[in-house]
Design brief:
Blueprint: H1 5-14, E1 19-23, H2 27-40, E2 44-48, H3 50-56, H4 59-72, E3 79-86, H5 88-96, E4 101-104, H6 111-128, E5 131-136, E6 140-143, E7 146-148, H7 155-163, E8 168-171, E9 176-177, H8 189-199, E10 203-205, H9 213-221, E11 224-229, H10 231-247, H11 258-261, H12 263-277
Parallel strand pairs: 1-2, 1-11, 2-3, 3-4, 4-5, 5-8, 6-9, 8-10, 10-11
Antiparallel strand pairs: 6-7
Helix pairs in contact: 2-4, 2-12, 5-6, 7-8, 10-12
The structure holds glyceraldehyde-3-phosphate and zinc ion (ZN).
Length: 280
C-alpha cells in the first residue's frame, strides 16, 4: 500500500522508533527492498534522488515500477515513495508523477529563500496530502555529485521551519553523506538533544551509512524518526557484483545473462535491507 510518510513517521516519533529510508537505484534494488521490508513486516520509505529518477527513466517510470511491484509481489506493508534532496523543480516533477512524499533541499540557499520555497511547497503538499521534509544546516559529503561541508542546524531557523508546517526536518549534526572519513568528529548529540527538546517533531538523519548502532540508537532516543541509508547498500551491491565476476567466467553457464550476473547483488541487497530493518 502506498502511503505518505506523515502517519508512519508520527507514530515512530511518538514511540521512539525509526522508519528506514532506503535509496533505490533501479528495478532490482526496488524489488529486493520491497521483498525484504515485507518479510520483516516493517513500513519502508523508498528514497529516490533526482539523478536516480533520471537513471530510472523519469519520475513516472519510478512511480509505475514501485506501484506495479507492490501489486505483483503482494506487498502488504506501508510503502512511501519519497523524493530525496530535490530542488523546487524536482519537487514539482515528483508531485506530478504521484510521489507521495518529497524532500525539498534548500540547504545551499540563503535561509530566507529556503523558507520561502518550502512554504510554497507545503501549500501544494497539503492540498495533495503529500508529506514534506526540509533541511536546515547542511549534511556534509557528496550527494548526487554535489559536495558540501558540514554546517550545523541552527535552533532558531529550525523553529521557523516547524512553524510553517513541515512534517519532518533533516538536521545537520555532523552527519555526512557517503563514507565517514577517519578523522570524522562524530555526531553532535548535545545539539540533537536541544533540537529535540525544543522542536518536539520528527527529525531525520541523513548519511546513515557507517554510523555505529549505538550512535543510531542514541539518535532514535533523541527524536530521529527517519534514517536515510544509501551508501551501505551501494557498497554491498558493488561487492557482490565484484565477487561474482571474480569467481565466475562470464562466458560459462550463461553467466552473461543478467539474471545470473545480478544474482548475488540481488541477494546482497535483500539481506542488507533485512539486516538494517531488524537493527532496532
Ligand atoms: O539522502 C540519502 C542519504 O542521506 C544517504 O546517505 O549514502 O551516507 O547512507 P548515505
Ligand atoms: Zn541525504
Amino acid at each position: 500500500m502506498l502511503v505518505n510518510a506523515k502517519e508512519i513517521i508520527k507514530s515512530a516519533y511518538k514511540n521512539k522508533q525509526v522508519i528506514f529510508h532506503i535509496n533505490i537505484n533501479n528495478l532490482e534494488w526496488t524489488k529486493q527492498t520491497l521483498l525484504a521490508a515485507n518479510i520483516e513486516k516493517k513500513p519502508i520509505i523508498l528514497g529516490v534522488s533526482p539523478s536516480a529518477a533520471k537513471y530510472f527513466g523519469g519520475y513516472s517510470v519510478c512511480y509505475s515500477i514501485v506501484k506495479s511491484l507492490i501489486k505483483e509481489l503482494r506487498i502488504k506493508i506501508p510503502v512511501c515513495l519519497h523524493l530525496d534532496h530535490g530542488s523546487y523543480d524536482d519537487c514539482i516533477k515528483a508531485i506530478k508523477a504521484k510521489f507521495n512524499s518529497i524532500m525539498f533541499d534548500g540547504s545551499r540557499l540563503p535561509f530566507e529563500k529556503n523558507l520561502e520555497i518550502s512554504k510554497k511547497l507545503i501549500e501544494i503538499c497539503k492540498k495533495k496530502n503529500i508529506s514534506i521534509e526540509c533541511e536546515i544546516g547542511r549534511i556534509g559529503g557528496n550527494e548526487d555529485g554535489i559536495v558540501s561541508d558540514v554546517s550545523y542546524t541552527k535552533l532558531n531557523e529550525a523553529k521557523a521551519f516547524k512553524e510553517i508546517g513541515i512534517d519532518m526536518l533533516a538536521v545537520g549534526i555532523g552527519n555526512i553523506h557517503g563514507e565517514y572519513p577517519k578523522d570524522w568528529k562524530g555526531l553532535n548529540f548535545s545539539l540533537l538533544s536541544q533540537l529535540n527538546d525544543e522542536l518536539k517533531m520528527p527529525l531525520v538523519l541523513h548519511g546513515g551509512s557507517g554510523i555505529s548502532d549505538d550512535d543510531l540508537k542514541k539518535c532514535i532516543n533523541l527524536g530521529i524518526s527517519k534514517i536515510n541509508i544509501n551508501t551501505e547498500l551501494q557498497i554491498a551491491n558493488a561487492k557482490a557484483i565484484e565477487k561474482f565476476v571474480k569467481n565466475n567466467n562470464i562466458m560459462d553457464n550463461k553467466n552473461y545473462n543478467p539474471r545470473n550476473l545480478y544474482k548475488l547483488s540481488n541477494e546482497a541487497i535483500y539481506h542488507k535491507v533485512r539486516e538494517i530493518l531488524t537493527k532496532f
